[in-house]
Amino acid sequence: MSRVGKNPVAIPSGVEIDVRETEIRVKGQKGELSAPVNDLVRTEQKDGQFTVRPVDEENPKARAMWGTTRAIVANMVTGVTTGFSRELEINGVGFRAQVQGSNLFLQLGFSHDIHYPIPSDLTVECPKPTSIKVSGANKQSVGQFAAEIRAMRPPEPYKGKGIKYVDETILRKEGKKK
């Protein structure tokens, strides 16, 4: 029994879920998302709830896809209603970021500035020159874009310089001793 899969997904008002043979489409006020459906699970929608069941409970792959499919649908429903966001913090002398049009400009101590294009389904804000907020409806693309930004200058353990998530803690090292 999947602990995640057996819980139904509550469908809030204003959200439409359309199940086709090979994909699920979720439409809400923040946009429309779609995901492929595995043929090892079957879906059912009634009374404002969306449930997922495995076709064969003896098949380990079907049981694995049961919880995975339910989690994907729940994330899509959350994404089209409230959305997801990830905040990053920049530490370092002269390190800064700004948004100009559809590009993110980063100055991270390299000999050149980094011009990084922003995907069309995401919004990026820089409330301060040392903070970046990535938000959008798709949880995977928000996390992927934030991870790509962080990978440009990951935080180093001695002085803490680099780009880190706001809720991330960096284990600091002491450094050389005489």
From TrEMBL:
Subunit structure of this chain's protein: Part of the 50S ribosomal subunit.
Q: GO MF terms on file?
A: rRNA binding; structural constituent of ribosome
**GO BP:** cytoplasmic translation
Q: What species does this protein belong to?
A: Rhodovibrio salinarum
Q: PANTHER family of this UniProt entry?
A: 60S/50S RIBOSOMAL PROTEIN L6/L9, LARGE RIBOSOMAL SUBUNIT PROTEIN UL6M
What does the sequence similarity comment in the record state about its family?
Belongs to the universal ribosomal protein uL6 family.
Keyword NAD belongs to the record: no
Name the UniProt record assigns to this protein: Large ribosomal subunit protein uL6
Q: What does this protein do?
A: This protein binds to the 23S rRNA, and is important in its secondary structure. It is located near the subunit interface in the base of the L7/L12 stalk, and near the tRNA binding site of the peptidyltransferase center.
Q: Give the superkingdom in one word.
A: Bacteria
What PROSITE patterns is this protein classified in? Answer: RIBOSOMAL_L6_1
- Pfam annotation, one family: Ribosomal_L6
Domain Large ribosomal subunit protein uL6 alpha-beta: residue ranges: 11-83, 92-165
